[in-house]
Structures are given as structure tokens and as C-alpha cells.
Amino acid sequence: MNKLKHFLERKYNFKTDFTRSVALPSLTIIIIISMFCGFFPTEANDFFNEVKAVIFKNLGWLYVLIVTVFVLFLVGIAVSKFGKIKLGADDTKPEYSFFSWVAMLFAAGMGIGLMYFGVAETMAHYANPAISNLDEHLRAKEAQLYTFFHWGFHAWSIYGVVGLSMAYFAYRHNLPLAIRSGFYPMLKDKIHGKFGNIVDVFALCSTFFGIATTLGFGVLQLSAGLQSLGIIPNTSFEYQVGIVVIVMVIAVISATSGLGKGVKKLSEINIIMATLLMLFILVAGPTIYILSTLTEGIGHYISNFMSLTFNTYAFEKESQEWFSNWTILYWAWWIAWAPYVGLFIAKISKGRTIREFILAVLFIPAFFNFVWMTIFGSSAIWIDEFIANGALSEFAKNTDTLLFNFFNYFPLTTLLNIVSIAIICVFFITSADSGIFIMNGISSKGATNSPKWQNVFWGGLLTVVSLSLLSSGGLASLQTMTLVTALPFGIIMLLLCVNLWKALLADDEYSTTKYSHGSLNWNDYHWKVRLEKILTYSQKKDIRKFLNETVRLSFEELVKELEKNEIAASIIHHTTPNNSIELVIKHDQLRDFVYGVMAQPQTISETLINEQNTPNIDSETVFLPISYFGDHRMGYDIQYLSKDEIISDVLREYERFLTLGSDGMHDLLMKPN
């Protein structure tokens, strides 16, 4: 394989960053399973359905427990001291604006599902009461409650666990943006071996099958909408081929333009269109009824949150079939999609704090889902009860056309259909676009800037597989197979939680480790000099003088003494961006020890400048000599230290460095970048 790769690169300038141990097994599995589902759709569907039924019936409680752990785990971290940790170095800035970030979270997560189930799920529960025989008003209330439950915090906690784990290890510790990286605290460098390959193969196959089935089933709704507009005469396979090809061509073009240019722009456009559509339904529909049900629905959801979270219907045998076909199926489907969505939101979340990440991922999309599902679902129930005389309930089982039948009861029906189709198309494109990007990342151990032909390859493979299965009727069996694989990946996600917790504990200890009392050798011999410095507000030239005279002399003396002990050290002077000087001790197995001092500007408040009983201040901007370290920690003001005291401070930090390096618990934090 490597010889062939090198030959193609030399002969045809054919470059690839595929990792053989991940890409080849994944492609083999994808092809074999796709052929099984395509050539033997009935047998495959029967087999996978039987396995799914056994798992759902006997292990439904385990799905409930797993998802409950995810919710409690993320909430616990968000409110803990770990919430302030950044996904990256302490000075990392977010790559995307908050609006762009939220738009991409929404579009990649559940965008297409909202269009498909916005009316359908609420009407399905309403038309066929989920738990018991209730009057129509209580049925509407319970239908909204279970829709909120399935599309709320629980779903996003599943995505959040994978996304947070990947983002933390990738950006905080410079590991590959891959699921295998989340096992570093447990496996250390073994994540680069067979176990890591197995995890990535599983994630790649799950991502591919999830996108393929969504693309295939979504085409059914899209073709139904185009037929309702008269754009296509029917929903035959020939027209579905055209739809898939057009969507995938645009997705590939978007993917090759880069994530920031492609998904970012499309996501922003789509969230605006979706919001305008939602607001139109709110205004043109039963507005007061919708707003009232939204308020009551959120309260009903909050008051029933814990009972819904832990409920397995162990004492309600008549409801267990509904429970398996809805709640457990949803949990399995969200888990199956977790590698794709989790890795995508990790990719776009660099620079966010853990608390910001969790609160945004859990609350913003969930609240939008509540609003969306209420506006569409409650409107449908109201129309069904007061206008349509039960006609919408009759369409509840025909999900592909239900949304477009719903629009028939509103003004500007044709325009609504056009906008909806446009939104669905863009959701398809962004899902496929981001999916191609994620599959490239998984198959190349997080490599960036993959050759453009790989985007075309994944897009072409998705197109061929989804169309083949759509033609043969094998999409349903592939979807069922994907649900079956959710349980083992749920166990993998539990292990990700354990590893992330261990890493956060080590991170916190690393950042808060105190100096040993034996190294605290401060003295008060130079108090007059310190007082003089306190009363002097330094300019940049003063700090430059301090760095060149006091700090450099202390570093030079230390270097000489270290060399006597056969420890090589060097002094580096930087003139940009801030004037700074560093003492560096190089290491192979550990990160380099760096003690630096830089001139950092500080703005003086107008109040202090105008204060009479203070020294004269010539400028509102002064400069301080601030220390910093090789692990990206910012230090403190050392302007009051003498040469010997700076040496003492460096030794204190060096002692801390060696103490942490001797503890195997901090291997991840102490390894070179």
C-alpha cells in the first residue's frame, strides 16, 4: 500500500493523507454491508430487525441509564471548577463568531430532522396516544411533552459528550482530532495502535451509514415537496437520482472550498430562512394558542424532567412497545450519529471554555427545538381539531408529505413549499458537506487540508450507496443496522466520560499545584527598592532596561550554573509581539521548561490618574514585566524582584516542573506539543 502510494505520488502527483489502518478496513466494511443490504434487502432487514428487537426489549434500561449519565455528567462539569478551562491554550481565541458557531451547531445537528419531524412527531403522538387513552386536550399536552423530551437536552448531551471529549484532547493537549484521543488517560500512547484504529473505524462507518440513510430517506421528502409544486411529475427513482446528484455535487463543491467558507455561510443562510419560516407560521397560525402552549410546554417539561429521564416503563407493560419504538429508538439514533455530530461541533469549538461549550450545546439548540416543535406541532394540532376535522391526523403516518399537507391550511402555500424545499436542500448540503469533512478527518487521524479528490471520493461513495439502497429498498435495513451498533458505541462514550474526568482532574491539579514550602525563600532586604518601584509607573523603555539588566543577568547566571551540572539551557530574546526574554531548558520526553518575562501593557484608570495623593502618572498606558511559562500559563508581575530573587523564582517554577514530570498522572500535560 505504501509503495503504491509513493509511486502514484511520484508518477501522477497523486497525494493522499488516508491512514491505511483506518481507511481500508472502513471501506471494506462499508462495501460489504452496503452490498448485503442492497442485494438482500429483505433478509438483511429481517436479521437486523430481530437483533434490534432483542436489544431494545432486554437492554432498553441500559440506553436510559447511559443517556442519563451523559446529561448529569455534562451538567456537573459545567457548574464545576472545570467549566472555566478552555478548549485550547489559555489565550486561544474562538475561531468563529458566536452567531456562526450556533448556526453551525444547529445546522449540523438536527436541522433536517426538524423539517421532517416538526409536524410529524407531535401529530404521531397526538393521533395515537403514547401512554394512555386521554381526551384530546391532554393528548395534545402529552404529545408536546414527549416531543420535547426526544429533541431536548438528552439528545444534545449525547452529542456534547463526544464533542467535548474530542475538543478538549485535541485543542488542550494537541492530540489528533479523533475519538481515539479521548482514551489517552487510560491507554497513553497505545491510542495510536490497534485499539485507536478500531475506534476510528467504528466512528467512520457509523458516520458514513448515518449520512447515507439520512440522505436516502430525506430525498423521499424532498421529492414529495417538488411534486407538490409541480416541478417533477412524480417521485419515481429517476427523479430521486437527479435530486441526490445535484445535492451531492453542491456539497462536494462546498466541502472543497473549506469548512469556514462552505458550511459556515450555508448554515448562516439556512438558520435565517428557517427562522423566517417559523415566524411566518407563528403569525399566520393560531398565535396566542402557540405562545400559550410553548410557555406551558416548557414548564411541563421541566416539572417532569427527572421522571422522564429515569423512566423505563417497567411497571407499565402496555407502554413498553411505544417506549422502545420512540424513546429507545431515538436514543440509539442520536448515539449512532454522535461520532459525526460530535466531531463536527468539536472542530468548530476551539477557544470556547468548557462551560460555554456545554451550555451552548445543551441549551441553545434545545430551546430552538422547543420553539420550532411548538410552532409547527401545536399549529398542526389546532388546525386538525378546529379546521381540518381530523384530516391532518390521517396523514400522520405519511411523514414524507405531512409538512406539505400542513402548509395547505396557510396563505402563500406555494411560497411556503418553495422556502421549505430550499431549507431542506441546504440542510442536506450542510450535512453532507460537514460529513465529508468529518470522514476525511477520521480516515486520516485528524489531518487538515486533505487533497480535494478525497472530498469527491466520499461524496461519490455516498451518492452511489444511497441511490443503490434507495433503488433496492435496502435503506431501511441499513438504518436498522446503524441502530444496532449504537449500544456498543454508547459503552465507548461512557469510557470517554471516565477518561475526560481523569484528564480534567489532572489538568486542575497541574494548574493549582502549590510550591513546596522549602522553596519559599523570599526576603525583605530590598524593601526600599520595592517601594521606589511601586511609586514608579514604568514605560516600555523602563521594562526593556529591566529585562536587559536584571532579568538577563539572572538568566545568564542560572545558565552557567546549570551547565556545571550538565544541563543545557539557552536564553532567547523576542522583540515581537511584545519585548520578551526566555530561559529555555530543552527536553525530549517532556515539554520544554520555559520561564519567560515580557513587557505587558496595562491601562491606568482615569480615577487613579486624577487622584491627588498618588505619584505623577505621565501616560494612561504603563508596562509591567509579566512572567509566563512553557505550558501557556500566564504568570505574575516580577518588577519588584532583585536578580537573586528572580533566580529563586525560576528555581521554584523549575522544581514544580520536575515534580509534575515525575508523576505519571500528568504524562499528557507534560508531553511535548
Average of per-residue pLDDT values = 82
Q: Tell me the number of helical segments per DSSP (H or I, 4 or more residues long).
A: 27
What is the CA-atom radius of gyration, in angstroms? Answer: 30 Å
Spatial gap, N to C terminus = 30 Å
Structural class: mainly alpha
Tally of separate domains: 2
Core attributes:
single chain; 673 residues; mainly alpha; Amino acid/polyamine transporter I; 2 domains; 5-stranded antiparallel beta sheet
Description:
This protein has helices at residues 2-12, 20-39, 41-79, 98-109, 111-117, 120-127, 136-151, 153-173, 184-187, 194-228, 237-256, 263-284, 287-303, 305-310, 320-347, 354-386, 391-394, 399-407, 413-443, 452-472, 475-484, 486-512, 527-534, 540-564, 606-610, 643-661, 667-670, and strands at residues 570-574, 580-585, 593-603, 621-629, 634-637. The protein is mostly helical. The chain folds into two domains: 12-511, Amino acid/polyamine transporter I (Up-down Bundle); 517-670, no CATH class. A five-stranded antiparallel β-sheet has the order 1-2-3-4-5. Strand 1 (570-574) and strand 2 form a beta hairpin. Helix 3 (41-79) crosses helix 16 (354-386), helix 3 crosses helix 21 (475-484) and helix 13 (287-303) packs across helix 16. It is elongated. It starts with a helix and ends with a helix.
